[in-house]
Amino acid sequence: MRRSSTLSGGAVGIGSCGAPDEKAESLRQLCDQHSDRVYRFLLGLGLPPAEADSIMQQTSTRAMHSAPNVEKLRDPGFWLRTIAIGIISERRRTAICRGGSEHRMG
After folding, report:
1. Quick check: 35 and 89 in contact, CB under 8 A?
2. What is the separation of C-alpha 34 from the centre of its chain, rounded to a whole number of angstroms?
3. If you average pLDDT over residues 43-59, what whole number do you get?
4. Which terminus of the chain, N or C, has fewer Cβ atoms within 10 Å?
5. Whole-prediction pTM
6. Using one digit for the tens of pLDDT, what is the confidence trace for 11-41?
7. Nearest to 55 by CA among 89, 98, 30, 99
8. What total of structural domains would you count in the chain?
9. Does some domain include residue 93?
10. Residue 2 falls within a domain, yes or no?
11. What CA–CA distance (Å, rounded) separates 2 from 39?
12. Considering the domain boundaries, does residue 96 fall inside one?
């Protein structure tokens, strides 16, 4: 189930987020290395594939904007999953505030 750079391929603003090209490339590679695991993690949480893809794109964008020193991350996969969980939580809170069900994110 190899994903074709879904996590980093569609990232917006890589050049404009202030990260040098070398750092942006390191982040892109990190995202590519962990994209399968993050995707499977999201599916394991019960998300439909389209929702998992959407969250992966947002995860990539947020990772690029926060742009930590990639070499200093102890567990980059954990960091990316944490970003994804934050996005899921935000979507659920937004759905609840709008009067939707806490279990539906659409």
Report:
1. no
2. 10
3. 95
4. N
5. 0.71
6. 333 333 444 677 778 888 888 899 999 999 9
7. 89
8. 1
9. yes
10. no
11. 10
12. yes
Rounded Cα–Cα distance for residues 106 and 104 (Å): 6
Token pair of 41, please? 């993690």
Scanning the chain, the segments in alpha helix (DSSP H) are 6-9, 21-44, 49-66, 76-97
Buried b (16+ CB within 10 A) or exposed e, 19-48: beeebbebbbebbbebbeebbebbeeeebe
In a domain, 5, yes or no: no
- Tokens 């404009």 belong to residue: 16
| Residues ≥6 apart with Cβ < 8 Å to 56 | 6, 7, 35, 38, 39, 42, 84
Residue-number span of the structural domain to which 61 is assigned: 20-66+75-106
Percent of the chain at pLDDT > 70 equals 72
Distance from C-alpha of 13 to C-alpha of 66, rounded to nearest angstrom:
12
